[in-house]
Amino acid sequence: MKHRLLLLLLLLSTGAAYAQVTYFGDLIGKGFQQATVVQPSDYEGSVTCTIIRKTAPEKSARAVLYVHGFNDYFFQEEMARRYSEAGYNFYAVDLRKCGRSWLGHQKIGNVRDLSEYYADIDTALTVIQGEGNEKVLLSGHSLGGLVVTLYAGERAGREKFDAVLLNSPMFALNVKSGLKKTALPLLLKRAEKHPETSFDLDINPLYGESLHVTAHGEWSYSLGLKPFVAPPVNLGWIRAVLNGQERLTQGITINKPVLVLHSAKSIDEKKWSDAFFTGDAVLNVDDVARQAQNIIGQYSIQAVQGGMHDLILSRQPVRDEVYSTIFNWAKRAVK
Hints:
Layout: H1 2-14, E1 24-25, E2 33-42, E3 45-54, E4 62-67, H2 77-85, E5 89-94, H3 118-130, E6 135-141, H4 143-154, E7 163-167, H5 177-193, E8 198-199, H6 205-211, E9 233-234, H7 235-249, E10 252-253, E11 258-263, H8 285-292, E12 295-296, E13 299-304, H9 316-333
Parallel strand pairs: 4-5, 4-6, 6-7, 7-11, 10-12, 11-13
Antiparallel strand pairs: 1-2, 2-3, 3-5, 8-9
Helix pairs in contact: 4-7, 5-7
């Protein structure tokens, strides 16, 4: 009995064990399922992540894992359908303290080091492999794109994925250069002792309005889980993100093929206009393109004309082009 216990602990510590998860009907319905996974507690208490899946209509050993961004959760039914039609079993993970995984005692999105998310990605990838998937595309959007990039570098030599797709990764905060040199260093210093101090990112709520069906957009999702006005973060979050971006600046080696997609231009409108449908209203795309070149390995960068921040939520002709680009690349990358 003692030897069995030691073996179990060893398997768990190396990530080799596969824990069976129990799926239930997801809030989206339409054949989507979700499973809640309890993770080790942290500085706020108990922690969970949520795995969402929809299997391809025909038996497949290929899968994609999607990691959402800041002030976000998985809701993109069309994305799942496109992957399913291309022969991929679709999976997404709502990271701890986000979307389906948020618990009442937690501050939404609270994180002090982006590596806290690695356990959620590890868990999802282990489940995906345990369900018979032999080839896996790891995909991240915005903050999720930054997290996936760092994760892929940290897991070099131990990858449970075969290629990396980054959709408008948050490789730099969209702040003016003067503030980067003056305000951000002061915030970082204060964050060391006061990580819970609240800070408003001042993300333009018009971006959310450009997406949601009740405003100017075409997408239906929960405004409780993804509100127009992003909730304030804290200085611990700022420090975690800036530290992650600095690690990328120093160069990150990724052993698998990487595709970085971003909009061809940024939008900085203060009032509503249809210009929000034509560019990235969250990030500076020049920063994204420049920072992407700090990936060491086999990578390609492509600007998408007319793409919005979340490229797969752009107007249909644009997102059709995005999917075509993704699947053409994946045919070569996910072998």
